[in-house]
Structures
1.
Amino acid sequence: MLGISTVLFAASCSKADPGPAPIINNDVIANTNTKIEAPVPINLIEGKWVGGSYNPVGGPVNYFVLNFKPGGILSVETNNSFAYGTWTMAGNNIMATYTFGGESIITYSLAGTYSNNSGLQIIEGSIGIGTSTTGSGVFSVTKE
């Protein structure tokens, strides 16, 4: 019996067995060569972004300004109309909701992606009515 215990102990301590893969949040981590991009610093987003928005089905390009302020505050200008709302960011993805006042109050939501192409900072995405981020148009703005 002692001989069997020794053999089992020696087999369980073998250095050839790497053991199980590390587990984080119940997901197995694999070795890959995938490039992981660092999150975009908030201070790169804060400020005035100018460009256009349009309905991809047809229609004119509208002047479109997004002014990302500290604390998640957003102001929007489009063709001499002004709206105010909030914005958040996760990685390089930006989400915002803003409301135009006046006689007809309407709320829009947008989802955009930040990119930096050789120093040209761009946010491109889509716009929807209410909580939808699609269906009303698309936009592209560059940092001023």
Note: The first strand starts at residue 23 and ends at 24.
2.
Amino acid sequence: MKSILFSAKKRFRLGPIASLMDLAEKADMKTPISILKLMKRLDPETVIFDIGKLAAASVDGTGKLAINSAGFWSFTGNVVENGHAAHNYALTIALTFKDPTGNNVVVAHEGKVYGTFAIGDRESSWQDDGYNLLIANFWDDIKYSGTESHLHVSTEAWGALEVALAVIFLTPFVVLPSGGGNCTWTSYDPSNPLNRSPPNIYDPSIHTAVEVNCVDDPQK
């Protein structure tokens, strides 16, 4: 019990004389504190959803969403323009899990890629990290969630994300805002776990397994 409390104080940056009530408040947990739920936040379980390869017009997109039982999430992806025109894009992934008010949980990223006849990058890569208490509180349900992913593109200068959400998701939804987390993706060879990639750099031909570690972002 002492080791659990010590780890909890270290994880949530509490002083040596902090009480269980301080811990419950910092961890956004209601008393009485569940040791099982506390352990899931100290040594979190992680689930990664791979959206595969999506295509819209002359644009291709891939992405992965990681969530863990401490409440952190990380959305990383890549979008490539294969044609001549420039496109605004929105890549979205929705969990089939619904929050207590009936909303689907959605993570989205928007940006712009440029074609042969436009000045700019043909490729766009990103990593958005965040924290949301909803994930931690409903972990036992949300970790088994299915997903629905879409790539929407537009040559218009506005509205790619709004159009994507309005057209695709006909049920109520909530988009998770980024911030509050700082995550590192590391890939490795499962037959030799010591053969690991540098953080956030992948070689899928060698490092076929992936792990994601997240910590609080003190700046957000």
Note: The two ends are 31 Å apart (CA to CA).
